């Protein structure tokens, strides 16, 4: 059977990228449940005193609590945006060549993080955050595993665009 007519196996391209996204979702949900049980009514846990702690926070807005005080409509707006974006990333992953590695890993991290936060937003109306980075009186907004996955995936896409795009263009022109 020609390669173009062969359907992907369960662990073949692009399924393994979806499995990575599912692992991010599972890790995100498990850590959020742990954080709720451990920190919702209890004290923070200092990991690195003066720098990193686990705590509990509810984010009713988007990144950095953007529009958190908007009255409730933002729950559905940001949910719809995350759902549409996730659908786009699912299709993007499906269309990538099987030989690619960096880009699909980045997209799978972003997809898993987006769905992890979407889960909270739809079910609870807010996103559960628990990782707090601070120094003295300066505090970075509290975040979660999904936020880390989205940030790492986005950074990977930027790195690819800035440092690897020229080598791809050179490869394409060499093939012609």
Automatic annotation (TrEMBL):
Domain of life where this protein originates: Bacteria
Reaction(s) this enzyme catalyzes, per UniProt: Release of signal peptides from bacterial membrane prolipoproteins. Hydrolyzes -Xaa-Yaa-Zaa-|-(S,diacylglyceryl)Cys-, in which Xaa is hydrophobic (preferably Leu), and Yaa (Ala or Ser) and Zaa (Gly or Ala) have small, neutral side chains
Is Transcription regulation among this UniProt entry's keywords?
no
TM region(s), chain numbering: 15-35, 47-67, 73-94, 106-126, 138-163
According to its UniProt record, the EC number is 3.4.23.36
Q: In which pathway does it act?
A: Protein modification; lipoprotein biosynthesis (signal peptide cleavage)
Record bears the keyword Cell membrane: yes
Principal subcellular localization: membrane
Q: HAMAP family recorded for this chain? A: LspA
The text of the family note is: Belongs to the peptidase A8 family.
- Supply the name of the protein: Lipoprotein signal peptidase
Organism (species): Microbulbifer aggregans
């Amino acid at each position: 059977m020609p390669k173009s007519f062969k359907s992907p196996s369960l662990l073949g391209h692009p399924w393994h990228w979806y499995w990575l996204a599912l692992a991010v979702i599972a890790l995100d949900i498990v850590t959020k449940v742990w954080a709720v049980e451990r920190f919702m009514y209890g004290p923070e846990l200092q990991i690195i005193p003066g720098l990193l702690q686990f705590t509990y926070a509810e984010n009713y807005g988007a990144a950095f609590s953007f529009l958190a005080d908007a009255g409730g409509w933002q729950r559905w707006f940001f949910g719809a945006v995350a759902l549409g974006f996730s659908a786009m990333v699912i299709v993007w992953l499906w269309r990538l060549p099987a030989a690619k590695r960096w880009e699909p890993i980045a997209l799978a991290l972003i997809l898993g993080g987006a769905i992890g936060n979407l889960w909270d937003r739809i079910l609870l109306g807010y996103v559960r955050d628990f990782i707090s980075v601070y120094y003295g009186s300066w505090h970075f907004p509290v975040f979660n595993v999904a936020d880390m996955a989205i940030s790492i995936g986005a950074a990977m896409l930027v790195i690819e665009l800035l440092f690897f795009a020229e080598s791809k263009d050179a490869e394409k022109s060499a093939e012609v």
